[in-house]
Amino acid sequence: MTKTYFIIATVSYLLGSIPFGYILVRLFMKQDIRATGSGNIGATNVARSGAKGLAIATLLLDAGKGYLAVVLGVVSFNRQINYVTDADQLVVLAGAIAALFAIIGHCFPVWLKFNGGKGVATGLGVFAALAPKAVLISLVVFAAVLMISRIVSLASIAASAVFPFAAYWLQPELRSTTLMLLLIAGPALIIVKHHDNIRRLIEGTESRIGATPA
Fold it and tell me: In what helix (H) or strand (E) does residue 10 lie, and over which residues does it extend?
């Protein structure tokens, strides 16, 4: 069983490591997205390059690879993802391991010398597969904070922070200590990867939608 979980973690990490933002901008714009804006490979920074279509594609692909990682983790136990809430703890654990390592892969991709994105879109994908009810709560929080503050990073941090609590509240099958630790670790990593944004938020210099960055 341990070997199976190790394989799931490895495959999920490699899948999460695919830097779609970097690849798309390199292919279609002949540019290195890491030289634009914040230097991040995620959808928000791709949008700063002026390529809105590529930003949308990056968002969907990054979320998709996260979702796929969890699906593959669960399918490896011969269960359908649609029935994950009814699966035994071993199957749910496989999905949770896949979720965490897909996020780790996106944040620290081996293909880009471990310098990746912040994991928001990939987190959305993995958690939509693993805990869809909790994701809906996180999306509502994201939308509300974004509407009030017009700061994408703050909305992302708030949505990530809320997710583990929403998962515990709405999905009892995830309430074991091991599963909750895994579900906390993913959002915690996403928040930590926003450390520069947090510093700018404290300083009051974080950029807002519709405003010229400081």
Answer: helix 2-16
